[in-house]
Every structure is written in C-alpha cells, then in structure tokens.
Amino acid sequence: MAVAPYQDSTIKQFLTEKDPSRRSVLTKLWLESKISELGIVSVTSALLIATFCATFSWYNTSASPWSALACWTSGLVIAVGSLGTAAQQTLSLNHLKSYPGFENEICDYVGHDATNTAGNTVRQPAYSRIYILQIPVMMLKLSFVLFLVGLGLAVWDASIKRGRNSAESKIAVAYTITVIFVGINYAISSIFLYRKTSKVKAA
Predict the structure, then answer these.
(1) For the chain: N or C, fewer Cβ within 10 A?
(2) Any idea which of 65-74, 81-90, 103-112 has the lowest mean pLDDT?
(3) What are residue 111's phi and psi, to 5 degrees?
C-alpha cells in the first residue's frame, strides 16, 4: 500500500513542466482527477460500511472466533475512517479551487526542491504529502482485506469444528478458491492498468 506509481509519475509531470500555462493545465487535470477519485472512494467506503454492518446481522457472530470479529470490527472502523478522510480531503481541495492561483499552491504542497546528481535544484514529488493524499484509498483497500480475512477465519473455524466431510468444510474450500481467483484477477487488472498508464506517460 505504498505510493502508487501513477500518482508519482503524474505529479512529477506537472512539477517539472517548464511552460507555466501547460503546468497550470496539468495541475488542474490532476486536481479534477483527484477529486473524482475521492468521490469514488467515498461511495465505495459507504457500501463497504453497509456490508460490514450487514455481516453482523446475517452471520452467526456468536459462534465465530474472536479473530474474525476483530477483523470485521477493525475493518469497519477503517472503512469509516476512509470515508471521513475522503470527505475531508474533497472539501479541502474544492475549497482550494476557489482561490486564484491555486495551481501554484498545489505545486508547493505536493513538491519540494531537491538536488540531482549534477548538483542542480529540481522539483520532486514530496512523498510524505503524496502519502497523505492516498490515505483514503489505502484505508479502503485495507478494510477490504480485513473483511475477506475475517470471513475466511469464520468459515475455516466452522470447518475445523464440524470436520473434514461437513458442509462447512466444503464451503471453506469453495471460499478459498474464490478468494484466490478474485485475488489473481485483481492483481492482473492492477498490473495491466499501471503498465498502460506508464506507457502513456512515457509517450
């Protein structure tokens, strides 16, 4: 859950742009994209919060191991934190847009002066600031993982208690296969999109 490559390359693009007018355009495009991203995170976090809350009602939580409940409870809190952080950042960025010359303010916030190998001063992304801007997305991903881990702990605990030939054991195997399938496809999708984005930036 480190800084996403596309964030680094996009920010570096407008930080190092020499033409002021083009830098302004690139900064505005990045800002609009970031606000849209936060909107998606807010909606997804709200849906995930509803999923966590529903889990406590339809699943027999009293028979679940404490580790599963700990994952679900922690995931719920993190999802709420993701929603709140995304909303706060959206409000702040929209408020920033109302000021003249906000493009320069954004460049100052996400970038810093650094010295390259030739001894020249260049603008580079400030990774601590980029990390802050990615907190909603990272918390959302973590809450997804905690939900799946908690569900896995619950179904496998039931499988162990009921025995190898029980229906619970078959459910646990089916769940594991499904999670592996989803994880592989998620990884393929993410890698493809990141590589595609890198090629577009390089062009």
Answers:
(1) C
(2) 103-112
(3) -125, 165
* Domain boundaries, position 54: 5-202
**CATH of residue 106:** 1.20.140
Nearest to 79, CA basis, from 17, 125, 141, 5: 141
Strands 121-125 and 111-115 come out as: antiparallel
- CA–CA gap between residue 22 and residue 103 (Å, rounded): 11
pLDDT for the residue 27: 86
Is the torsion defined by CA of 34, 191, 131, 139 positive or negative? Answer: positive
Which letter does DSSP use for residue 63 in this model? G
Structure tokens at 148: 């799946």
Query: Stretch 45-50: mean pLDDT, rounded?
Result: 96
- Phi and psi (nearest 5°) for 15? -70, -35
- In the chain, the number of structural domains is 1
The predicted model scores a pTM of: 0.82
Q: Write the pLDDT tens digit of every residue in 91-121.
A: 999 988 888 888 888 888 887 777 666 667 7
Selection from 5, 149, 7 nearest residue 78 by Cα: 149
CB 79 within 8 A of CB 139: yes
Read off the pLDDT band of 128 (50, 70, 90): confident
Is residue 75 within 8 A of residue 119, CB to CB? The reply is no
> Per DSSP, what are the bridge partners of residue 112?
124
